[in-house]
Amino acid sequence: MKNIMSKILRVNLSTGKISTEPTDFNMVESFYGGRGVGIRMLWEEVGPEVTPFSPQNKLIFFTSPLVGTRTPGANKLVLTFKSPLTSGCFITLCGGYLAPELRFAGYDGLIIEGKSEKPVYLYIKDDEVSLRDASDIWGKSTRETDRAVKEK
To answer: By C-alpha distance, which of 75, 92, 84 is closest to 39?
Structure first.
């Protein structure tokens, strides 16, 4: 399958462990696009007993194979998780730069799991991936946070 980066980034906030794993090409072909793959991954990794605010719940970000190409409108990232409102599967589309930048860094998807003891943010620049302290920006507005992270 063309335009698959072949890896998924997994970040465990509880342990601080960051790892990559291969993208399952069969799953991408069977559940084409970020929506189908995200739902399938949530189904496999988060059981019905997991509550939405539990560290066992996961945020699954996935791109489609067209993200990062010249295809018009192909800049969407699908976020899949267990909804705090209904406890069911919830999907939302995110536009902007995140999906293409994730693909340009070499990842088809991102899975965030666990719960951090302190405020952190995820830094990704190609193969350099780390969790960084966000204590000094905790509680700021969206605009102030964006500015502070970019300055760092």
So the answer is: 92
